[in-house]
Specification:
The chain has one domain (3-65). It contains two helices and three strands, in the order ββαβα. The chain is an alpha+beta fold.
């Protein structure tokens, strides 16, 4: 599964990417993520995606789709 999120004027994020364990290693995550990304781009927006740098599997998938590393970010909690 994957969803469009952070809907801004010129960008949208692809997020909530998840494949249940029993369906992994079949390419489903790649297909869904690529299709959601295509829909964002077809709407004339820049597609962004946040990823966990410590997960080489997802990072490899995203780079094969065409995503490129842009920057690191941090989150502050109260």
């Amino acid at each position: 599964m994957a969803a469009r999120s952070r809907l801004l004027i010129s960008t949208e994020s692809v997020g909530f990417v998840y494949t249940p364990v029993k369906f992994r290693r079949n390419g489903y995550g790649s297909i869904v993520t690529a299709e959601v990304t295509k829909k964002v781009l077809a709407d004339g927006k820049l597609a962004t995606l946040y990823t966990d740098l410590s997960n080489p599997t997802s990072n490899s998938i995203y780079m094969k789709i065409g995503y490129k590393p842009y920057c690191d970010s941090v989150m502050l909690n109260k």
